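Our consortium's second objective concerns turning raw sequence data into structural hypotheses that experimental partners can test. To show how far this objective has progressed, the report includes one record in full. It was chosen at random from the queue rather than selected for favorable results. The single chain below, 189 residues long, was entered without modification.
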Amino acid sequence: MSTLKPLTIDIVSDVVCPWCYIGKRRIENALALVPDVPVEVRFRPFFLNAWVPREGIPQRLLGQPFNILRLAFHPEALAPRTVNLAEWCGHLLERLHRQCEVTADPELIKLYHDLKAYPIPARAGPLPPDNVAIPFKLRHNGVVLSFFSTTMVFGAPVDITLSELALETFFPADDLTAERMRNIAASLD
């Protein structure tokens, strides 16, 4: 038994981040590399975009273990609200496929195949290889909110843990969306 004081890790999962599931697996893999270090992991779910109508998403999809990718694809969740569903889900599948190739993680591979089974329309064509921003268009209260998404990968090749850390960020793509997001943020204060 270790005499070290347990390292406490608080994980705040933002449900608009489609990579929460992957991040959870990565922290588990990192902790498995140091089995002699006592660690207490505390999960603290956080719903950043409270404007996403929870009453419109079945409770069984919001329970634990929570998976934002399933929520994005599910016909009872965000899929009917996503205006450019084929393009957005195509982007998510491509990203997840690359993660599967890099990690060979059986759970990620299963998730990839599960998501491919959802009834998502085919994309008109592949995205150009130099595309740096992926559009995400979400219908909310009769208005289409438009965002662009960018992904940053941190670290260096010598640091396995850091080189696997990615952050996906959403920005308003038009004035209407920017104004609506400012109003939503102001209402949360």
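The partners drew two points from this record. The chain has a mean pLDDT of 76. The chain has one domain: 7-188. Both points have been shared with the crystallography group to help prioritize constructs.
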